[in-house]
Amino acid sequence: MMKLLKVFRMFATGFVLAMAAGSWAAEPVRIGMSMAKTGAFAAAGAGQLNAYQLWAEQVNAAGGLDVAGTRRPVELVVYDDQSDPAKAAAIYEKLITSDKVDLLMSPWGSPAHFAVVGVLERYKFPMVGSSAASLQIRSLKAKNIWFPTSAIPDALGAELAKLMQAQGVKAVAINTVQLPFPQEIKRYLVPAVQAAGMKVVYNEEYAPGIKDMTASMVAIKRASPDAVISLSYPEDSMLYMKQAREQDLRAPFQFVAVGPSIAFFSKMFGANLDNIVTLGHWSPDQKAWPKAKPFFDAYQAKYGEAPDYLDVALAWVSAEVLQQAVAKAGLDKDKLRAAIASGTFDTIDGPVAFEGVQNRLTPAMFLQFQQGKGQIVYPPSQQTAPFVAKSGWQK
């Protein structure tokens, strides 16, 4: 009897080891992407790549990606698109045709996303987008890309005007970089501000790559607005922050579009970032989203800094959508496309579902940094903290 028990134990141990070896010997699921690792958008792209790498690490630690019931390890295939949309398009074609990856994840930024849409459509290869927002989304009529963000310019313009009105703003200064996304927001913001009875006291544009905003800051200060709206990208957002402090702009409502949610902004500006409003529809403090805080903690533990409250969160959401769709549909492109288009997904940003290419469940929101943390201050239904007026700058 003892001999039989010993044989059984040996067999059982061998079976378990064989099963474990078999699971790790499975062919990896190869997931391709390009990322802005160098060039103008590299600082922003770094956080998005961090999110994808952390996701892959967690998936593999949990036994691999569930591919319609079978667990397989994940392998990321990453190329540097050098912040060049044309290079991104070429890379995605290579990933599909030469590298023959199983799945795709998205690049950083609207220009790169829109550059790869034609490639996705030509090869009928589904991909969940992330850090892209533009009215062009609705005109794409694409069947192989989806955008989880709610930061769409027409909604942003209208809702930003409502937020300012609720804070008693009477006079608004608007400074806009000549790039499509900021200009789209402006197109809807100006009429919404005027319709709400507020006065636009400054409304100018500047070229990308600007090195000095002193003249604009002096003119804005002279106009004495209650609100300053900097419709900017990361490099010029940094310039605004530096020169608004130098000129001691005292507007109680200050909005800086793209940049403040990125981790390096907090490091660079410290307490001066407090009470700046920015784009964003995610916070780890939103109790209705139980996955939000664990993601925040895991990212901070691995990288030693908080995740970007917009683009990094969106990258993680896109990975969650893809993961849940693959669990249901496997790697078959037609089944996967149908699963993404029709499903409702449980994410760190709450439930996500798509109508056409756009997320239909997440409302437009705004963040404000308060004591170093990004808090949702609008809309009231999603608020994690009330708005706080900006009282000044630290030297």
Helix-strand string: HEHEEEHEHEHEHEHEHEHEHEHHHEEEEE
CATH topology of the largest domain: Rossmann fold
Reading side by side through the largest sheet, how are the strands ordered?
9-8-10-11-12-16-17
Let me know the number of strands: 17
The Rg value, from CA coordinates, equals 23 Å
| CATH-derived architecture of the largest domain | 3-Layer(aba) Sandwich
Low-confidence segments, ≥5 residues, pLDDT <50? 1-24
**How many domains comprise the coordinates?**
2
Can you tell me the overall shape?
Answer: globular
Overall description:
This protein has 395 residues and is α/β, with parallel strands linked by helices. The chain folds into two domains: 26-150 and 291-359, Rossmann fold (3-Layer(aba) Sandwich), CATH 3.40.50; 153-279 and 365-382, 3-Layer(aba) Sandwich (Rossmann fold). Helices cover 45% and strands 19% of the residues. The chain has a seven-stranded mixed beta sheet with strand order 9-8-10-11-12-16-17, with helices on both faces. Strand 10 (227-231), helix 9 and strand 11 form a beta-alpha-beta unit. Helix 3 packs parallel to helix 4, helix 6 crosses helix 7 (180-195) and helix 12 (311-329) packs across helix 13. 48% of the residues are buried.
Relevant terms:
395 residues; alpha/beta; Rossmann fold; 2 domains; 7-stranded mixed β-sheet; 13 helices; globular; disordered N terminus
